[in-house]
Specification:
The complex is a heterodimer. By secondary structure, chain A is of the alpha/beta class. Chain A is built from 14 helices and 15 strands. In chain A, the strands form four sheets. In chain A, strands 9-11-10-13-14-15 form a six-stranded mixed β-sheet, sandwiched between helices. Chain B has nine helices and ten strands. The chains are: A alpha/beta, B alpha/beta. Chains A and B meet through strand 8, helix 10, helix 13, strand 15 and helix 14 of A and helix 1 and strand 2 of B.
């Protein structure tokens, strides 16, 4: 198959193009905008038959996306960071409508202070919204995941919106070789959207999920969203198998790299996981039995599969590129709950790294393996560690010295 | 794996240079990863782009820490610490710098541990030619690694720039191939760097970040108008110069339209440009009704302003 060099953003646009999306509400934000620009160009040149509308905010954008999806057309949109949070109210609402659509999130750290670069606090904030979440590690995965996401969202067992997450800069602006699947094969894989009863029309007005309800019906409707999300696990496995048959690429709900004979594993999501893959290769050359476990699907949480992969391991270095203030890494917390009380559960060592695009060096992955091995030997995990060096603290101290001088000057 | 970093200024085509080199590697049978890196400000600000190329799948990501080749398109960047031009350079690293000065001068001036090469730059360059810097740098890089055939370089330029029209492609091809041929004597001097093995690596100096009172640890800038402290004028590649004989003192036009508020009005009613902060966007020049503002290449203008000849 021919491969082309393209960015993660371009790969996302190609996914939308091949999925023959029909409606695209848009609002710009770095580092996402290139996705929309690429599609806008294709609409201009006639390569895509899609209605694009520029909105006044992400809040309106997701409202429009959900409303359009409720009419039974295939909807695509994209945002990032502050934009995702600005849309937050409508994420929960649209999921409650049971409107299937695909939203790209290009991960970027949240304010304050402001950053343009990547971490996962934005996407983690949407964790409980009812949107399913697929996390990508390569540009190829971005394209493929858009196709998988439409199948998942539109599956009658699920019928929920899906977010496909790619990391800002590390994927969004990074070109890698990507195979563009053959359009006919994609159309056989996805086919046109069969909306069934999803057919909101102005001519036949209905009120969608707006009534004020008491706890009993409310509990029912919300729990149905939860059950539909859980159905996503089996549905995803099925769809991913079909995908492999059609395109030859494997996108299991959890990537397991050299895990069979591993004593120790790295657990993480997103593009930095390829760095861990590199570290696994090097550590194995040096005689370590190390592997990588990478959930691609984060909602629904592939709990059973993670248990299967982690039980019997001695230690797991859980690397969170997010931080729940006052608790710690989200992935670490979720893994701990999945493994609690299970015999043969590994010692979980929590690392917080890569906040605001801060790089994670190969040496740091080696060191995390070493710390985790020691924790496994001792049967006890050390305190969670922020990946932050003495040099970095010195850098901050310089800024603080400047602040101190300025503050003094202000007083004088 | 080859790890190559391009340094330039926003607008000089470093992103495109990275892409052309990436495509040239790809056409030569390599796996490739290329990406630009920049912040909120673009034109004239220091940016860099990087290219990784290997015969097997590339799992490494992000900024290149141990470059095999560093290419500097604009030698004025060397003096800007934030540009990080020399970051991670070792005796293995080759530095290719576009400059009117010799490699020996740069080698000594920077105390550079590795091989230094230069691409000749003309004095007082025509800004219209600056757009081809990317192609020139790419052409040179392609020959320095030796694994990119001339034809792959040419095809990469056609692939990446084809949408700009035949004239642009032809001009870039000329520049790139000329630079390619110019590097014949140094062909193959850039080689794939070695990586630290997992059993003998430099241990990261992790520390426990201490708690500090919000008074200290909240991100506050304790001074007004701090943006004045940033000499954004350094980003300028072209300098607007006011010809006061032609100026009609309709200074509200240029001073209002300047997006950085760098034009003030003096007591006589004439506009004055604050060159510490003017980024050289030339909106003033294009909006001046009496055509009293012209643009000069920055180096030439700076030398003239200092009373000397261009260096």
């Amino acid at each position: 198959m021919t491969r082309t060099l393209m960015t993660g953003n371009a790969a996302a646009a190609w996914g939308a193009r091949l999925a023959q999306v029909e409606y695209l509400p848009a609002f710009p934000i770095t580092p996402q905008t290139e996705i929309i620009e690429t599609i806008a160009k294709w609409i201009d040149t006639g390569d895509m038959d899609c209605r694009m509308v520029t909105m006044d905010s992400e809040h309106s954008m997701i409202t429009a996306a959900g409303a359009a999806a409720a009419t039974g057309v295939r909807v695509f949109s994209a945002t990032s960071s502050q934009g995702l949070l600005y849309a937050m109210e409508m994420l929960y609402t649209v999921a409650g409508w049971r409107a299937p659509l695909v939203l790209m999130n290009v991960s970027r750290g949240l304010s304050a202070p402001l950053t343009l670069e990547s971490d996962h606090n934005d996407i983690m904030a949407a964790r409980d919204s009812g949107f399913l979440q697929i996390h990508c590690a390569t540009c190829q995965e971005v394209l493929d995941s858009v196709l998988l996401a439409y199948r998942l969202a539109e599956d009658s067992r699920v019928r929920l919106p899906v977010i496909v997450n790619l990391d800002g800069f590390y994927l969004s602006f990074t070109r890698e070789p990507v195979a563009i699947p053959d359009a006919d094969t994609v159309h056989r894989f996805i086919g046109p959207f069969e909306p069934g009863t999803i057919s909101f029309r102005a001519s036949t007005p209905v009120s969608q999920a707006v009534a004020v309800l008491g706890g009993t019906p409310y509990s029912y409707f919300r729990f149905e969203v939860h059950l539909a999300s859980l159905n996503g696990l089996a549905a995803y496995d099925e769809i991913a198998r079909e995908f492999t048959e059609a395109f030859g690429r494997n996108h299991d709900a959890v990537e397991a790299y050299h895990t069979d004979d591993a004593d120790l594993v790295f657990v993480m999501v997103g593009s930095f996981a390829t760095k861990a893959r590199e570290a696994v290769d090097r550590l194995r050359q040096a005689g370590w039995k190390v592997g990588l476990v990478r959930p691609r699907l984060l909602r629904p949480f592939p709990e059973a599969r993670l248990r299967e992969l982690l039980t019997g391991k001695r230690g797991a270095a859980v690397i969170d590129q997010n931080l729940s203030m006052g608790k710690g890494g989200v992935l670490h917390t979720e893994l701990a709950s999945a493994l609690y009380g299970r015999p043969g559960a590994p010692v979980l060592v929590s690392f917080i790294g890569g906040l605001g695009g801060r790089d994670i060096a190969l040496e740091e992955l080696f060191e995390m393996a070493k710390v985790t091995r020691q924790a496994a030997d001792e049967g006890q995990a050390p305190a969670p560690r922020l990946l932050f060096t003495a040099d970095e603290l010195r850098e901050v101290r310089k800024l603080q010295a400047i602040a101190q001088v300025e503050r003094q000057r202000l007083k004088d | 794996m080859y790890r190559i970093r391009f340094h330039g200024r926003g607008g000089q085509g470093m992103k495109t240079a990275g892409r052309i080199l990436g495509t040239a590697f790809f056409l030569s049978g390599f796996e490739v990863q290329d990406a630009p890196r920049y912040g909120a400000e673009r034109r004239g600000a220091p940016i860099f782009a990087y290219v990784r190329a290997a015969k097997s799948a590339i799992n490494e990501r992000g900024v290149i820490r141990r470059p095999d080749l560093v290419i500097v398109a604009d030698d004025t960047l060397v003096t800007i610490p934030a540009a990080g031009v020399l970051s991670g350079a070792t005796e293995h690293t080759v530095l290719l710098i576009r400059s009117a000065e010799t490699p020996e001068v740069w080698k000594e001036r920077l105390n550079f541990p590795g091989l230094v090469l230069t691409l000749p730059a003309a004095e007082g360059e025509d800004v219209l030619e600056l757009r081809y810097i990317g192609a020139t740098c790419t052409g040179a890089a392609a020959h320095l690694v030796r694994v990119i055939p001339r034809e792959s370089l040419a095809q990469a330029i056609r692939d990446e720039l084809g949408h700009l029209g035949e004239d642009v492609v032809a001009k870039d091809l000329d520049q790139a191939l000329e630079a390619y041929d110019l590097m014949a004597d140094s062909s193959g001097c850039v080689t794939e760097g070695k990586d630290p093995p997992a059993d003998a690596y430099e241990k990261p100096s992790w520390i426990d970040v201490p708690f500090e009172e919000a008074d200290v640890s909240a991100p506050v800038i304790h001074a007004p108008a701090t943006s004045e402290q940033v000499p954004t004028g350094l980003w300028r590649t072209m300098r607007p110069v006011i010809d006061y004989d032609r100026c009609k003192r309709c200074a509200w036009i240029c001073s209002t339209l300047c997006p950085d508020s760098t034009i003030s009005i003096n007591e006589a009613g004439y506009p004055e440009i604050d060159y510490q902060h003017c980024k050289g966007c030339l909106i003033c020049m294009s909006s001046c009704p009496s055509h009293a503002i012209r643009a000069l290449p920055e180096q030439e203008a700076a030398a003239a302003a200092a009373g000397g000849t261009p260096s």
